[in-house]
Design brief:
It contains 10 helices and 7 strands. It is an alpha+beta fold. It has 2 domains: 100 residues, Beta-grasp domain (Ubiquitin-like (UB roll), Roll), CATH 3.10.20.30; 131 residues, Alpha-helical ferredoxin (Fumarate Reductase Iron-sulfur Protein, Chain B, domain 2, Orthogonal Bundle). α6 crosses α9 and α7 crosses α9.
């Protein structure tokens, strides 16, 4: 049996806007996206909204519903009481284009910044071999539908615009972690995560995990393990000792090479003159 619901939907563009009130019919089994479509059809034909599959698989219809980042197609109206006001606003972290549509280009930029899979040079395509456990380990991360709810809710970029240049966000740090888990990837993903993608900015509040519609344990299974691997690599005493030894050997080798090159160069090329050719100071 249907009822009349009170909706507040944000209307506006990049210059500003405000919430607009609507009274709209709600029928049994409907989701928030159904109501937005009804508003488009009956009361606000020019309302802009991004959507595609209406099945929770494309990630297009992300919005904030009563202040919580959600997919409109997966938020059932039965979630709310009949007398509850339902507020729908665009994703707060990204610039508004119009109404409920935001510019999520930030995420595409971050995706391009991550170096692709780097296999060993001695393996040709078709020669890659992996154990089943290595295949299954990052399988969870591949469920991502790129709705960007995790990116939107992460306070590191949500509340600090200045961090966007240096911080990839949970979705793409998860991608770096996935590549780091790949047994055939030879790139130093730990260094990439820390130096290039801002892993240190993440303080593991788990807000990204809480809003993920695919229930990916972003924090527990990718971000925390990645942080642990970075710390292990940086502070492991054996690794530290190895770096010291190799650094010393490298310096000694460079010093020996430099000395030989000067000796071989001869006086005309800048080699030290023989001691007996140098007279007393002032002579």
């Amino acid at each position: 049996m249907g009822y009349q619901a009170h909706f507040k939907v944000w209307r506006g563009d990049d210059t500003g806007g405000d919430l607009q009130d609507f009274q709209v019919e709600v029928n049994e089994g409907e989701v928030v996206l159904d109501i937005i479509h009804r508003l488009q059809a009956t009361q606000a034909g020019d309302m802009a909204v991004r959507w595609n599959c209406k099945a929770g698989k494309c990630g297009s219809c992300s919005a904030e519903i009563n202040g919580r980042p959600r997919l409109m197609c997966m938020t059932r109206m039965s979630t709310f009481t009949e007398d509850e006001v339902v507020t729908v606003t665009p994703l707060r972290t990204f610039p508004v284009i119009r109404d409920l549509v935001t510019d999520v280009d930030f995420n595409y930029v971050k995706a391009r910044e991550i170096a692709s899979f780097a296999p060993p040079e001695d393996l040709a395509p078709g020669e890659y071999r992996m154990s089943q456990v290595d295949v299954e380990r990052p399988q969870e991360f591949r469920k991502c539908i790129e709705c960007y709810l995790c990116q939107n809710t992460c306070h590191v970029v949500r509340d600090h615009e200045e961090n966007k240049a240096e911080f990839a966000g949970p979705r793409y740090l998860m991608r770096v972690a996935e590549l780091d888990m790949h047994p055939l990837d030879v790139r130093n993903r730990k260094e990439d995560a820390q130096e290039d993608h801002g892993l240190g900015y993440c303080n593991i509040t788990k807000c990204c995990t809480e809003v993920c519609p695919e229930h990916i344990k972003i924090t527990d299974n990718s971000l925390i393990p990645m942080k642990e691997r970075v710390v292990d690599r940086k502070y492991d005493p054996l690794v530290w000792l190895g770096r010291k030894i190799f650094k010393r050997e490298d310096l000694e080798q460079r010093g020996a090479t430099g000395k030989r090159s000067l000796d071989e160069a001869g006086p005309e090329n800048g080699s030290p003159l023989p001691a007996d050719s140098i007279g007393p100071v002032g002579s």
